[in-house]
Amino acid sequence: MAIRNLMELKASLPRNGRLMGLDLGEKTIGLAVSDPGLSVASPVGTIRRTKFTQDAQELARAMRDRDVRALVVGLPVNMDGTEGPRCQSVREFSRLLLQRPQLFGFEPEIAFWDERLSTSAVERMMIGWDMTRKRRDEVVDKMAAAYILQGALDRLRQGDAAPSGSDDDRDEDGNADGEDGGSDGGGDGGGE
């Protein structure tokens, strides 16, 4: 029951254990799940936020239904790399989840992923698909969760291909030691 960096999170997974990506919004929680091989993220739904306990119960049910053992939670870091009230809220939500292993039937593990610009990137993509505003509003949160999770999965694959020890110096946010929370070449900071 801990907050880990991505490589530690992967190492803690049971064989064929899946990851779930979360996009924590004020009104909804977007959900995405990985395949057992940790290659592809797929959007799976949203949870309409009410009270923490009810949100946590729905999340636990979604995790159990999909054999998910750990979470990659999008961390809404400011563009300058600092953390504001939204990051504090995400960290608090995650901390509270970890205090309730009885909901999950196991002790979940969590890693954070820099989600800067994930929602806007997903919205641009959906506009390119000529999707109506109403339809975009219905799916943006789960698509953002998939975008967050896919970034983390891609980073895990890079870590597997990298020389031994190259990812061991990352903190629980996926940042290299000494980085201030800015882009680590993954998440939304890379490639845009």
TrEMBL record:
<keyword id="KW-0540">Nuclease</keyword>
<feature type="compositionally biased region" description="Gly residues">
    <location>
        <begin position="183"/>
        <end position="192"/>
    </location>
</feature>
<dbReference type="InterPro" id="IPR006641">
    <property type="entry name" value="YqgF/RNaseH-like_dom"/>
</dbReference>
<comment type="function">
    <text>Could be a nuclease involved in processing of the 5'-end of pre-16S rRNA.</text>
</comment>
<keyword id="KW-0963">Cytoplasm</keyword>
<feature type="domain" description="YqgF/RNase H-like">
    <location>
        <begin position="17"/>
        <end position="122"/>
    </location>
</feature>
<comment type="similarity">
    <text>Belongs to the YqgF HJR family.</text>
</comment>
<dbReference type="InterPro" id="IPR012337">
    <property type="entry name" value="RNaseH-like_sf"/>
</dbReference>
<feature type="compositionally biased region" description="Acidic residues">
    <location>
        <begin position="166"/>
        <end position="182"/>
    </location>
</feature>
<protein>
    <recommendedName>
        <fullName>Putative pre-16S rRNA nuclease</fullName>
        <ecNumber>3.1.-.-</ecNumber>
    </recommendedName>
</protein>
<dbReference type="InterPro" id="IPR037027">
    <property type="entry name" value="YqgF/RNaseH-like_dom_sf"/>
</dbReference>
<keyword id="KW-0690">Ribosome biogenesis</keyword>
<feature type="region of interest" description="Disordered">
    <location>
        <begin position="156"/>
        <end position="192"/>
    </location>
</feature>
<dbReference type="Pfam" id="PF03652">
    <property type="entry name" value="RuvX"/>
</dbReference>
<dbReference type="InterPro" id="IPR005227">
    <property type="entry name" value="YqgF"/>
</dbReference>
<keyword id="KW-0378">Hydrolase</keyword>
